[in-house]
Design brief:
The complex is a heterodimer. By secondary structure, chain A is mainly alpha-helical. In chain A, 68% of the residues lie in helices and 1% in strands. Chain A contains 20 helices and 2 strands. Chain A has a two-stranded antiparallel sheet. In chain A, helix 11 packs antiparallel against helix 12 and helix 15 (449-475) runs antiparallel to helix 16. The mean pLDDT of chain A is 92. By secondary structure, chain B is of the alpha+beta class. Chain B is 36% helix and 20% strand. Chain B is built from 6 helices and 11 strands. Chain B has helices at 2-21, 35-69, 85-112, 232-245, 251-257, 281-288; strands at 132-139, 142-147, 152-155, 157-161, 166-172, 177-181, 185-190, 196-200, 206-212, 224-230, 266-268. In chain B, strand 6 (177-181) and strand 7 form a beta hairpin. In chain B, helix 1 (2-21) runs antiparallel to helix 2 (35-69) and helix 2 runs antiparallel to helix 3 (85-112). Residues 295-313 of chain B have low confidence and may be disordered. Chains A and B meet through helix 5, helix 9, helix 11, helix 12 and helix 13 of A and helix 1, helix 2, helix 3, strand 7 and strand 9 of B. Chain B: It catalyses: 2 a quinol + O2 = 2 a quinone + 2 H2O. Chain B: Keywords: Cell membrane, Electron transport, Membrane, Oxidoreductase, Respiratory chain, Signal, Transmembrane, Transmembrane helix, Transport. Chain B: The chain crosses the membrane at residues 41-67, 88-107. Chain B: Residues 277-313 are annotated as: Disordered.
């Protein structure tokens, strides 16, 4: 009996009222979901329409729902940190909790918010933009999602079972090793992130092939929409960068679980090697979450300036240059690790070089606006705010690139301010921009503009209140990851202002959530499929797009293909309506979900080093693969008369 | 709405102006108290000027296009304005020039920081030379300072002569930390698998706050120390005072210090010779249990880049 209570008190995280609160809310939410689904008899609907779906649009929506939930959790983490730091010597969180909270905040925001949100948007938009019926590997696409989902669930479970990781999202060795960091927390990080990372790698391959092989006839590479270009380049970065991370995570897992010495202090292990492997992935990762939003901003700015993008070819080559440079700058994350002057000089200059293509892009966006007819919609506001705010992040990035100056900025709040300036003004503004922009395409109605603008202004202004003062705080000597600070250093008032800004951002997010709820009930229907006077093919089909996307695959002859089609229509040159033909579509499959579930079980087992659970979990994964390889009937045809019926219902037949 | 955008632009410039003009003594990095920090400060100010220029250009164009083309029925709408070779070449060349203007001083400073700063005061008699060497070891969560020339050990504070270059040799016993005294100069990591060096020098006597800037666990936030710079005569009398009045550091006491904990500043008049091996946690534990203390792999020099240039010689 004593043993059992002892085990349980270590298994479940105990002793903190906030954790019990979280336990209770998780339990209540789970019960609530089960009750609602059962009461409305929605289990079958959930399984048939969503959990087994291989439709890129549904997978995209599921990615975005999951990412929004994770954004909520990561945001609560941030507010907890800011509450703790609001005043000197606060006792809201102790060091142990604070360390866990900043670790989960960083990991969740990058891996379980930024990436899946972008994957969600690209799932929705890319096949539609290139005139395809789905991605190249729809089954793999579903598997990617479920691996991400179960990886994220496993990571989040650490909060209530076993204890959260506390080595920082960068998990530097030797601190993250078993010797200095015993317990299961770090295992959750390693295995949860690993599982979702496999999904990310598969997504990279999937979209590379999709974009290269499935474009509509006539759409050459240099006629693709800019967002599709950004995803093509991002996919290449994913494919080259993620294996380094997969290997690093695996090596540290082996260190921790089986006592190897890759990154340990003892037996010739090299903690520095972890830093290199981590950032060899970590720096390209920054561009994995930035290039796609560059694509989104390009689409949105062109649409609402009512102009073709300025300097299209240069924009593409800038992104290619950035993707190349992103692989030769990783060392700037540790200029202070005793590198020789020539090494630091090389990485200083390679990092500065990134400013050149990025600067070129900024000017091209500005000149797209120039001589435009600018329309200030909510997505456009996010895109416009990106330009000055991201530029501040960019120029401070150049300052950090100068190694001798970095010796003074490194690991300080100056750095914290810089990367939030780029990741929020870039990635977060970008995903909010894309969310508002493509929302009608996803759901068939628009988000409310008034609430949208309110959430924008509140969030954007608060963002500046939150992060501008941090630059000063860094120069005053406050370092990141401090759970508290003494009075008398002059840090107090600045920290208090920062905390106000952080809660303001929370308010902005709540207004956005309200907007989603309000618009779901009262939102303006999008009957045309083209609510923004769009320029690219996704706006040429109905909103929401039918399962098969396009009744007829469009033929492309120029950039901004849909704008050209509308032009032709205005000039009265319409093509005769072709008869519908049956459309070949992939079948739904429950295997990705089940396989993700087995991965979760295996991961949970390995986290606790329960091999009796981990190994059968992995065998389950293999069994799923075998089962899949015996599925011969993996596609179906939508008959022509059903297509006609769907098109007629959407009002697309005259 | 236009107005708000304009206001935002102006608001963004204010902090930069404050930074350039109002260097209060609370902003440690902008208040350099030694040649190393000053060198870095000059680079920071130079980059701030260049970057403010870039930001100003972007903001001016941004506000111009929004005001001019954000109006309803503006006259200048031209959907065929989709490229301009000349302009594009200009905004390719301008960033290249800016990068060069920043890269040249960056590289120059990198190499300059290799060498010890010039001494600006007469060395104390107890130093026996014109430069001082101090071994720094980070241990969870405290700083140990060993003065090989004086055979003294201090914990969580360090005493240096003002105006004399000090070569801090950096080691870690367990987790990775970073040694940072913002008023005297930029930081450097302390690591178990490579020892490194950092030249610092204080212009005048005074107390300069230092802390670990790389997260290392529970006691990290309190991992602070003071650097006390003293005049030559004060330094000499401090050394002789320590020699006379402070206890010796025994191996037993040292083993206690190695336990993860935050401790108060301490002073010892001597230390065991053993400490000069700079053993890390694995080596120390191997020694305790009688196992091999060899931490290196055959054929590899795991002890760092001693003497081979780098940020520090």
């Amino acid at each position: 009996m004593q043993n059992i209570t002892n085990f349980l008190s270590h298994f479940f995280v105990t002793g903190d009222p906030m954790i019990y609160g979280a336990d209770a809310s998780i339990a209540l939410a789970s019960i609530g979901i089960v009750v609602v689904l059962t009461y409305f008899k929605k289990w079958k609907w959930l399984w048939d329409e969503w959990l087994t779906s291989v439709d890129h649009k549904r997978i995209g929506i599921m990615y975005i729902i999951a990412a929004l939930l994770m954004l909520f959790r990561g945001g609560v983490d941030a507010l907890m940190m800011r509450t703790q730091l609001a005043l000197p010597n606060m006792h809201f969180l102790n060091a142990e909790h604070y360390n866990q909270v900043f670790t989960t905040h960083g990991t969740i925001m990058i891996i379980f918010v930024a990436m899946p949100f972008i994957f969600g948007l690209m799932n929705i938009a890319v096949p539609l933009q290139i005139g395809a019926r789905d991605v190249a590997f729809p089954f793999l696409n579903a598997l990617s999602f479920w691996l991400f989902f179960f990886g994220a669930m496993l990571f989040n479970l650490s909060f209530v079972i076993g204890g959260s990781p506390d080595a920082g999202w960068s998990s530097y060795a030797p601190f993250a090793g078993a010797e200095l960091n015993p317990g299961v927390g770090q295992n959750y990080y390693l295995i949860g992130v690993q599982i979702s990372g496999i999904g990310s790698l598969a997504t990279g391959i999937n979209f590379l092939v999709t974009i290269l092989k499935m474009r509509a006839p006539g759409m050459t590479l240099f006629k693709m929409p800019m967002f599709t270009w950004s995803i093509l380049i991002t996919s290449v970065i994913v494919i080259f960068a993620f294996p380094a991370f997969t290997v690093a995570l695996a090596l540290m897992t082996i260190d921790r679980l089986f006592g190897a010495h890759f990154f340990t202090i003892a037996a010739g292990g090299s903690p520095m090697l972890w830093a290199n492997l981590f950032w060899f992935w970590g720096h390209p990762e920054v561009y994995i979450v930035l290039l796609p939003v560059f694509g989104i901003f390009s689409e949105v700015i062109a649409t609402f300036a009512h102009k073709t993008l300025f300097g299209y070819v240069v924009m593409v080559w800038s992104m290619i240059a950035i993707s190349f440079l992103s692989f030769i700058t990783w060392l700037h994350h540790f200029f202070t690790m005793g590198n020789t002057a020539p090494v630091n000089a090389f990485f200083s200059i390679s990092t500065m070089l990134i400013a050149i293509p990025t600067g070129v892009k900024i000017f091209n966006w500005l000149f797209t606006l120039n001589r435009g007819r600018i329309e200030f919609t909510t997505p456009m506001l996010w895109a416009l705010a990106f330009i000055p705010n991201f530029t501040i992040g960019g120029v401070t990035g150049v300052m950090l690139a100068m190694a001798p100056a970095d010796y003074q900025y490194h690991n300080s709040y100056f750095l914290v301010a810089h990367f939030h300036s780029t990741l929020i003004a870039g990635t977060v503004f970008g995903i909010f921009c894309g969310l508002h922009y493509w929302w009608p395409k996803m759901f068939g109605y628009l988000l409310n503009e008034k609430l949208g603008k309110w959430s924008f202004w509140v969030f954007m202004i608060s963002f500046n209140i939150c992060f501008m003062p941090m630059y000063f705080l860094g120069l005053m000597g406050m370092t990141r990851r401090m759970y508290t600070y003494p009075a008398g250093l002059g840090w107090g008032p600045i920290n208090f202002i920062i905390t106000i800004g952080a809660f303001g951002m929370g308010l902005g997010f709540i207004i956005m959530a309200l907007n989603i709820v309000w618009s779901a009930i009262h939102g303006k229907k999008d009957t045309t499929g083209d609510p923004w006077d769009g320029r690219t093919l996704e706006w040429s089909t109905a909103s929401p797009a039918p399962e098969y996307n396009f009744a007829h695959i469009p033929t492309v002859s120029t950039r901004d293909a849909f704008e050209a089609m509308k032009e032709e229509k205005r000039e009265g040159r319409t093509k005769p309506q072709l008869p519908f033909k049956p459309i070949h579509m992939p079948n739904n499959s429950g295997i990705p979900f089940i396989m993700g579930g087995f991965m979760f079980v295996a991961g949970f087992g390995f986290v606790f080093e329960w091999f009796w659970m981990g190994i059968p979990g992995l065998l389950g994964v293999v069994a799923c693969m075998i089962a899949r390889s015996f599925v011969y009937n993996d596609h179906h045809h939508i008959p022509a008369d059903e297509i006609e019926r769907i098109e007629r219902a959407a009002g697309r037949l005259s | 709405m236009m107005k708000t955008f304009k206001m935002k632009g102006l608001a963004a410039l204010v902090p930069l102006l404050v930074l350039l003009t109002g260097c209060s003594d609370k902003i440690a990095v902008l208040n350099p108290q030694g040649p190393v920090a000053r060198e870095q400060y000059h680079l920071i100010v130079w980059s701030l000027i260049m970057m403010s220029l870039v930001l100003a250009i972007v903001l001016i164009i941004f506000i111009y296009v929004l005001v001019r083309f954000g109006r309803k029925n503006n006259k200048g709408y031209d959907p065929n304005n989709t490229g301009n070779r000349k302009l594009e070449i200009i905004w390719l060349i301008v960033p290249v020039v800016i990068c060069i203007l920043l890269a040249v001083p960056t590289v120059r400073t990198l190499y300059a920081l290799n060498d010890p700063p010039k001494a600006t005061a007469k060395a104390p008699a107890s130093l026996h030379s014109n430069a001082m060497t101090i071994d720094v070891t980070s241990v969870d969560w405290k700083w140990l300072f060993r003065y090989p020339g004086q055979n003294i050990e201090t914990v969580n504070y360090v005493v240096i002569p003002a105006g004399i270059p000090v070569n801090f040799r950096l080691h870690a016993y367990d987790a990775m930390n970073a040694f940072w005294v913002p008023e005297l100069g930029g930081q450097q990591y302390t690591m178990t698998d490579m020892s490194m060096h950092l030249w610092l020098q204080a212009d005048k006597p005074g107390t300069y706050a230092g802390r670990s800037s790389n997260y290392s666990g529970q006691g990290f936030a309190d991992m602070t120390f003071n650097v006390l710079a003293k005049s030559a005569s004060d330094f000499d009398s401090w050394v002789s005072d320590v020699k006379k009045n402070q206890p010796a550091l025994t191996m037993n006491k040292y083993m206690q210090l190695l336990k993860p904990d935050n401790v108060k500043p301490m002073t010892f008049s001597s230390y065991p010779k053993e400490l000069e091996k700079n053993l890390n946690k694995a080596q120390m534990e191997g020694k305790q249990t009688g196992k091999s203390t060899d931490n290196s792999m055959p054929g590899m020099n795991m002890s760092g880049n001693n003497g081979k240039g780098g940020y520090n010689p």
